[in-house]
Amino acid sequence: MKKESKAAEVDESMLFNLAELFKIFGDSTRIKILHSLLNAELSVTEISQKLEMTQPAISQQLRVLKSSGLVKFRRDGKLVIYSLADEHVSLILNVGIEHLSE
Fold it and tell me: 41 to each of 20, 35, 56, 84, how far by Cα in Å?
């Protein structure tokens, strides 16, 4: 019952923002990047090697993910290390994977 009342409280603006969030998840490259960050912090170079893509292509998608609040970064000297922004991002990914696995 509590879930229903929370769903009823969501306004049009929140639904619009939710749709925008799911658009970010609609790109397979961004999903691959997020999935690669599920278990480890990685640099752009490590992500590009893992996904066999160019660094500029990865950097472009990381900018989108960062501006959407889905990834964060920290500097280690000259190296920029990326990770998932918080537990919600990994939860969304894991629930999606679980849903598709059923």
Answer: 25, 11, 19, 8
Q: pLDDT per residue over 54-65, tens digit each?
A: 999 999 999 999
Q: Is the pTM of this model over 0.70?
A: yes
Question: Domains in the chain, start-ordered, CATH in brackets?
Answer: 2-101 (1.10.10.10)
Query: Rounded CA gap, 26 and 24, in Å?
Result: 5
Task: Answer yes or no: are the C-beta atoms of 90 and 44 closer than 8 Å.
Answer: no
Kindly state the tokens that stand for 50.
């893992």
Which residues is 82 bridged to in the sheet?
Answer: 42, 73
Cα separation, 73 vs 85, whole angstroms: 8
The pLDDT tens digits for 39-53 are 999 999 999 999 999
Query: What is the C-alpha to C-alpha distance for residues 30 and 24, in angstroms, rounded to an integer?
Result: 7
Dist CA 47 CA 53 (whole Å): 8
